[in-house]
Amino acid sequence: MTQFKLLERVNAPADLRKLSRSELPALATQLREYVLQTVSQTGGHLGSNLGTVELTVALHYVFNTPWDRLVWDVGHQTYPHKILTGRRERMGTLRQYGGIAGFPKRDESEYDTFGTAHSSTSISAALGMALGAQLKGEDRKAVAIIGDGAMSAGMAFEALNNAGVSHAGINADILVVLNDNDMSISPPVGALNKHLARLMSGQFYAAAREGAKAVLKAAPPLFELARRFEEHAKGMVVPGTIFEEFGFNYVGPIDGHDLDSLIPTLENLRAKKGPQFLHVVTKKGYGYKLAEADPVKYHAASGKFNPAEGFPKATTPSKPTFTQVFGSWLCDMAEADPRLVGITPAMREGSGMVEFHQRFPQRYHDVGIAEQHAVTFAGGLACEGLKPVLAIYSTFLQRGYDQLIHDVALQNLPVVFALDRAGIVGADGPTHAGAYDIAYTRCIPNMSVLTPADEAECRQALTTAFRQNHPVTVRYPRGAGAGVAAGSDLAEWPWGQGEVRRRGERIAILAFGTLLYPALKAAETLDATVANMRFAKPLDTALVLELARTHEAIVTVEDGCLPGGAGSAVGECLAEAGVLVPLLSLGLPDLFTDHGEPGKLMSLYGLDAAGIEQSIRQRFGSRPALVRPAANS
């Protein structure tokens, strides 16, 4: 295509480095348009990728990748990186099953030096790479590219603290590039962000810099005094002193869309030894006016759109999502109980808390990308008699696991964990799959684990959890469910009790969560009993044992990992009671799930109605002669 004539010459960074400097702005323009056209057809992250085009071009132009290592924090801004590293023709498969991932993936390309998707890991990884290279006597650079949102997390500062000191006399040759676009997924929060925004704003910095220059020029004989004044002036107007105290040589801020500034600066930093820090300022959605004007909306596209028109207008969905059900419940419960406090780690929109924030601003807390802090902060609120509700994705609660055990469960504090995106999440892939929360919460003393089957049950489960005096998780998937009207009351479940939804013969299917509905469909052809278990912990042992003693086989179904999951809980219950009955557990296998359309993945893992039926028939046959051992007859 003539539109991408220059871009089509770049099949690897080595081709990029053959271009003249004068050709790079045109390449960046074509690359940005290619990203826009690709995402408009596949969906995916948009604003962050449009904002890193020039930075990506400059990094691959200056550094000898893949020999030099680039580590992209979070990684949802790496579409330009993928295009320039030999994957341009595969971009049409982005985030689809069998296609390329939406994040860096080591087994996808040698240029993806470290797999990322959760934030604030890049500096730690790049430091390990830098020191590893030096220990092996290899002259290579390691570059961590991190956003201002990810920089707010504690892990980033732990890594900075470690990177700025020598290791057995070795100073790491690491470059940290702070991509400051004043934007994470939700509007950024926190004292550090406000400090950066205030001190690094273009007009303020430019005026102070020019003022300092004028003073210095006026006193050329006082060179030493001038040098000291320059350093003092720099410290007064930029946050460089923060990073210099960590042991880094700080440079910046510079315009992250100006290749004439980026390239020579990066070339200078590449030649330096020891820890280097470059502060670049970019604009999320740069070059696409609609995305520049509304970076939150254009953070990601859920599906196809016309770039000329922008994202289609939001339509009222035929049925609300689980996230919307949670958001509505949160407001209603806050009206009913003034002790409720809502917490999110930088996921206000994603967790459905916008209305709550608007209606109850004094009871809303966005703690930034700081999941560990979020959990312990909730524990502190609970100590003061408040009732915190932490809305957090299942995959992100993993980041606060020690705090969950040590700071909340050990002290038996009444915190509700609303776990969004439980189970298969689809296009974001294994880094975002909520596959492990049943297993990793069920094993913790004092914790309870609720698994609602539909929208109405989600609301009831949240109310039930909120009214307990100990920590409880309520897990629910991304998107909509069976379409059961959630209602507006605050009814709750009988604690620890499931229910039989269908009576059949011979086989009893115990469903945990939204897989109740495909289980019911499979049961129609099998004439099986189906129980909606509702609780993975405390397990309704009375119901389990009653069904085990009246049926020839037990089947458990869950959209979580099998090792340690709800099926394991049923097996433990049967073993403890000495009940010997054939048990088949269906769930996510002991491997990392792939990315792709959720329905396709559920079918692939045998968790749709057809898959459940097939697994049962393969194990037990159409009419198996299941004979109980004598001890249980």
Give the overall pLDDT as a whole number: 88
Q: Beta-strand percentage? A: 5-15%
The CATH superfamily label of the largest domain reads: Thiamin diphosphate (ThDP)-binding fold, Pyr/PP domains
The unreliable regions are 192-216, 219-238, 624-633
The outline comes out as: globular
Major sheet strand order: 9-8-10-11-13-12-17
| Structural class by secondary-structure content | alpha/beta
Rg calc? 27 Å
The CATH architecture name of the largest domain reads 3-Layer(aba) Sandwich
Indicate the CATH class of the largest domain.
Answer: Alpha Beta
- What is the total domain count? 3
Q: Predict the CATH topology of the largest domain.
A: Rossmann fold
The termini sit apart by 74 Å
Task: Write a concise keyword list for the protein shown above.
Rossmann fold, alpha/beta, five-stranded parallel beta sheet, 40% helix, 25 helices
Summarize the structure.
By secondary structure, the protein is α/β, with parallel strands linked by helices.
Descriptive account of the structure:
Helix content is 40%, strand content 15%. By secondary structure, it is an alpha/beta fold. It has three domains: 2-301, Thiamin diphosphate (ThDP)-binding fold, Pyr/PP domains (Rossmann fold), CATH 3.40.50; 322-475, Thiamin diphosphate (ThDP)-binding fold, Pyr/PP domains (Rossmann fold), CATH 3.40.50.970; 499-632, 3-Layer(aba) Sandwich (Rossmann fold). The strands form four sheets. The chain has a seven-stranded mixed beta sheet, sandwiched between helices. Helix 6 (122-135) runs parallel beside helix 7. Residues 192-216, 219-238 and 624-633 have low confidence and may be disordered.
